[in-house]
Amino acid sequence: MTSTVPRQPVKLGDLIEGQTAAHLAVAADDLGWWQQQLYRGEDIVPTTGLQRALSKALERLGWLEPGTEGYRLTGEGYEIAYNRGFVRVATRGWTPTFQQVGVAATTGDMIPARTDPHAVARGCTDIARRHPETLQAIAVRIAGDVHPGSTVDLGCADGGRLQIIGEFGLSEKLVGIDIEAGVIEAAQQRLAGLGFADRVRLRVGSVQPGEGLPAWLDDGIRRDVTTATSFNLMHQLATESGGIDKVLGAWQEWFPSLRRLVIGDVVLSDGARWHDQPWFAPTFEIYHELTGVRVWRHEEYLDAFASLGYKVVQCFDKDHEIMVTWIAERAA
After folding, report:
1. Which SUPFAM superfamilies did the record assign (predicted)?
2. In the chain, which residues fall in CATH 1.10.10?
């Protein structure tokens, strides 16, 4: 778990150079450099003038150093590359919202969230994939069901989590729901290319509870789903619905055979000031305060599970102090 080590208050240089560094980190990620180093161990070899300028800038930052044929990650660079999803979400995904604040604040109490949905989807997927053992443990537990059913990922992004569950649970049917049509289209193409076309049903739609059943919920999906997963979304859904238990209760009505919940989310940190909190916590909490969304405490999730008869059987919280994933089950 990320420890809350006191940090220095943000200074002018951090403010200016930090933005530049973040943009350079995302640009390197766009080129596939971070994954090239992390997962294949191949040197980064710039081939254009812009790539050479970018690599030199990253070397000046202390994130790259000369390798055998090009550049390789330093220790500090490895930390940036490994956590690239957070950088993408904050730098590209949420920028449209922060750009509204000055104008909206003259008359409003909050601003509607505006995001780059592809940046958010990719960033969240990269965050989740930092610890494949967590998703693998979830997949193994689902695969161990005596009577396989369907797993629905509510807010499925690019379908990466469904892919891992499907690789372990060969008999498990897979369903993915996301509100962004473009994200679903990209996920469909990606999963089809991996041989999952016949096993995955992807739908465009909201997973926010409302009046009656959602339009995307057909009889087959409603009947089959036994496991519901959702990552980095519950805080928003719960704010709009009036509580975590309200969302989970609605999902239980959507899927009468539901017996397992896998919920991953960011919980409220304890630090009072930015430099008392773990990195990402200030950005996450302020972004959601501006958009009128609550960040919930760990105990509130546990209370919601218990209120619906679910017992937490596994908890993954060793990654980052504010990021927790629970597997909660109830007797059939």
Report:
1. S-adenosyl-L-methionine-dependent methyltransferases
2. 1-82
Q: How confident is the model at residue 253 (pLDDT cuts 50, 70, 90)?
A: very high
Phi, psi dihedrals of residue 18, rounded to the nearest 5°: -65, -40
> Measured between alpha carbons, how far is 226 from 90 in angstroms, rounded to an integer?
34
pLDDT for the residue 125:
82
Query: 136: which residues sit within 8 A by CB, 6+ positions away?
Result: 164, 168
Residue 5 has pLDDT above 60, yes or no: no
Q: Work out the average pLDDT over 155-171.
A: 88
- Residues 63, 76: contact at Cβ < 8 Å? yes
CATH architecture of 118-329: 3-Layer(aba) Sandwich (3.40)
Judged against a pLDDT cut of 90, whether residue 33 lies above it is answered with yes
Collect all residues with Cβ–Cβ distance below 8 Å to 302 and sequence separation of at least 6.
312, 326
**Is pLDDT of 147 > 50?**
yes
Handedness of CA 249, 253, 256, 258 (dihedral sign): negative
Can you tell me the distance from the alpha carbon of 2 to that of 79, in angstroms, rounded to the nearest whole number? 12
**Do 259 and 330 touch, CB atoms closer than 8 A?**
yes
Which residue is listed with tokens 């993954």?
316
Domain with CATH 3.40.50.150 in the chain: 118-329
Nearest to 186 by CA among 159, 222, 168, 163: 159
Q: Report the mean per-residue pLDDT for the chain.
A: 93
**Which CATH architecture group holds 1-82?**
Orthogonal Bundle (1.10)
Helices (H), 31-107: 33-40, 49-61, 75-82, 84-88, 95-98, 101-104
Among the listed residues 86, 78, 3, the one whose alpha carbon sits nearest the alpha carbon of residue 35: 78
327: which strand partners? 262, 314
Q: How far is the C-alpha of 110 from the C-alpha of 290, rounded, in Å?
A: 5
